Amino acid sequence: MFANILKYRELLYFLVHKEVRIRYRNSLFGFFWTLLEPLGLMVIYTLVFSVIIKGISKGVEPYPLYILSGLIPWTFFNNSLKKGTKALSGNASLIKKVYFPREIFPLSMITANLVNFIPAFVLVIAFAFVLGVPVQWDQLVLLPFFILLLAVFALACSFLISVLNVYYRDVEFITNLVLRGWMYLSPIIYPISFVTENESETVRQFADLYFLNPMAVILSLFHGIFFPDQSISWGYVLYVIIFILVMLLISWFIFKRLNRRVGEVI
Questions:
Q1: Number of folded domains in the chain?
Q2: Which stretches are annotated as coiled coil (predicted)?
Q3: Averaged pLDDT for residues 80-85
């Protein structure tokens, strides 16, 4: 797979450039929508959960930084999967005309989203400095690893849903529905202590299952850069690494098997 991608790197660059250019065409704010959308959601969530509905933001100060440091990585993941769903079906005319490794389509979607995600997260770090929040430097040096983990997980999911969506168009609608629920099952608008120290005994009993969600662990890693008490056990990180690698292998295997008839079905 890597040899093929390296061989077609110029095509990959072209697709990424095309995706980024089209995304902001005729847009007044252009690239800044990468940050404006999470900023808008941050204002809404902060207003709702720290002013109108109090309690959920307990233990995380400043709450707007907590929201933003989770929302930016989540937005990357969410957009990557939504775009990834249509990575093959949206390029039907190109797939029918020319042969090249089709893995390039999901990969180009992830790379185009990374182009937006990395500068946006740098602005989150700048926001922390403006608020006077001390950055955990031992966690910040691991930021490239956190981003790699998130990107590979998004790629593994995209391989699977992009090829399944060619055969079953329901996958696109199911993915959108799952992403909505997945967001609320991940620590974006509430800290992990809201689960581990919940008043409900039932919730506390199943708290360990909560961390089987890879996004709960990955988002906690991003939060840990600014909020040391939100850091997570490295045992869970090891679990997520193994989970993502296994999922990448399975997704790629399914992609290669189903890819053979994509040109006929699409």
A1: 1
A2: none
A3: 92
Measured CA to CA, the distance from residue 42 to residue 10 in angstroms comes to 37
117-133 pLDDT tens trace: 888 888 889 889 988 99
Quick one: how many helices (H) and strands (E) in the chain?
15, 0
Cβ atoms of 203 and 195 within 8 Å: the answer is: yes
pLDDT in tens, 35-82: 777 778 777 877 777 777 666 767 778 888 998 899 899 999 999 999
In a domain, 266, yes or no: no
Q: What is the model's pTM?
A: 0.88
What residues contact 193, with CB distance under 8 A and at least 6 apart?
A: 59, 229
SS3 (DSSP) at 83: helix
Task: Classify burial at 67, counting beta carbons within 10 Å of its beta carbon; exposed 0-12, middle 13-18, buried 19 or more.
Answer: buried
DSSP 55: S
Domain with 175, as residue range(s), is 1-260
Looking at the domain assignment, is residue 46 inside a domain?
Answer: yes
Alpha carbon distance 258, 167 (integer Å): 9
Residue at 184 is within a domain: yes
Tokens of 150: 């998130």
Question: In angstroms, what CA-CA distances link 201 with 190, 212, 213, 230?
Answer: 18, 19, 20, 21
pLDDT grade for 198, boundaries at 50, 70 and 90: confident
